[in-house]
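Annex B. Sample input.
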Amino acid sequence: MDVDTVFSKTTYKARFDWIDHVTPIEDDTTVTALEKTLVSVLKEGGQELKLLQMAPPEVVDWDRLQKFTYHSESRAKVRRPDVSLDHYLKTLSDTDLSELDAEFLHRRHIKGFDSEDNEIAKWSVWRCLTGEIEHEKSTYVLDDGSFYQVEKNFLAKLNSDIAQHEREGALLPPAKLGQWEADYNKEVADKDKSFLCLDAKEVPFEGARGGIELCDLLTRQKQLIHVKRYTSSATLSHLFNQARTSAELLTNGAFRGAAKKHIAERDPEGHFAVFEPETIDPREFEVVIAIVKRWDGLNLAALPFFAKMNFRRVLTDISGRLFRVSIVPVSIE
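Annex B, continued. Sample output.
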C-alpha cells in the first residue's frame, strides 16, 4: 500500500472522528487573546462562568490526599475538603482581583495535603482550570493548561449523545462534602440493602495483575454501578475504562464464574447472585457510571470535553456488547 493510499484512508473516523473537529491552539497571539477572554470571564462572572470549573489536573491518590489550600489562604493555613472555582474566586482580595491575569494564574498555586498536613501535591491555578469559553463566535476548550478550538456542531452533537444516556430518577443519594468514594459506597450499601458494596474488592482472574474490579456497587436489579469523584479528565477516563473492562470480561464464562464466587463471599444469602458462568444475556444488565461532583444545577455538558469524548467511545464499546449504559450525576450536599 503506497503512502498516498494510506494518507487518504478515513477508517480512523470510526473511533477518532474528533480529530477533524478539534484543533490545538499553539499560535501565541491567539493563546494570549484566549487568556484575556478567560480572565474577563473570571472577573465578570455571569452565565459564562458556569462553563468553567476547577479541579486537580491529574489522577490523585484519594487515600492520601485529604485537603487543599489556595495560595490566597496559605498564610492562614486554611484547609478545604475540595476545590471549587466559585470558592477560590471568593477568597481573592480586591487587590488580587484587580491584578488577575494569565500570569497571576500561572504563578499562584493550589496545594494538597495528607491527613497529617504534609504537602503531597502542588499545581498552578492555571492547570486546575478547565471548561469552555466563547471567543470571536468560536468555542474553545481549556484542558490542563492548553486551549483547543472545537467546532460548535460537533460539540452540540457530543453533548446530545451523552445526554441521551443520563439516567432519570434518583438512583443514588447525594454524597457529603469531603466524603471519599470508599466511605460513600459503604454508606449507600449500609443504608439500603438493595445495594452490595464491592468497592476495592477485586475479582481474582488469571492474567490480570491484582485482579479486576467488577463494580463499586451491585444491585439486585443487575445494575453494575461504577462510582468516581470528579477531579479531572484523567480521573473520569479511568472510571470509564474500568466500566468498559468489567463489561468486556463479563462476556467471558471463566470471569463470570470468578465473579459469582467473589460476590457469594460477601453475600452468603444469595441476594445478589446475578451471574451464571454458563451464559449471560447482557441486555438484562445495566452499566451505570456515577460521577460525584458539585453540579450546582449544571448537566452532563459541564463535564470536561476530553472526558466526554472518552465516555462516548466507551459507550460505543459497551453498548456494542448489548449492555445498557447510563450515566448518573451524584450531587454533593
